[in-house]
Design brief:
The protein has about 130 residues and is an all-alpha fold. About 60% of the residues lie in helices and about 0% in strands. The protein has a domain at about 15-65. GO terms for molecular function: sequence-specific DNA binding.
Length: about 130
Amino acid sequence: MATSSLPLTSLSEAQRAQAQERFLIIRPALDKEITQAEIARTHQISARTIQRWIKNYRKKGLAGLADTKTRSDKGKSRRLPANAITLIEGLALQTPPTVSSLDSSASQCHRHRARMETTKLCSRTPDHQGH
């Protein structure tokens, strides 16, 4: 285990408690008593989170198990504005187009594109200069 770059004394009481709690969760895997997958299932935590905690513990010690970063938007509302919610709900309630209508639209688009390509090709051909 690497030396911690962040001493435990610099953590808040809540961060120290969090680190201790996480250590108690991953300790059986560190001691090779059970697998990381079994810990994840038992505690209903994603296997990736368990892997990350073990990696952080091995790299930084107990302090590596504490959340030290806070969200940049902490304390700010992350709710959508009411008009956005209304718009989304309205879109969700609309009947989606049928496959046949999409096929028809695609066919029309293809025909229009083919006409445009033909027009471009015809405009590029040199005049026959009166022949």
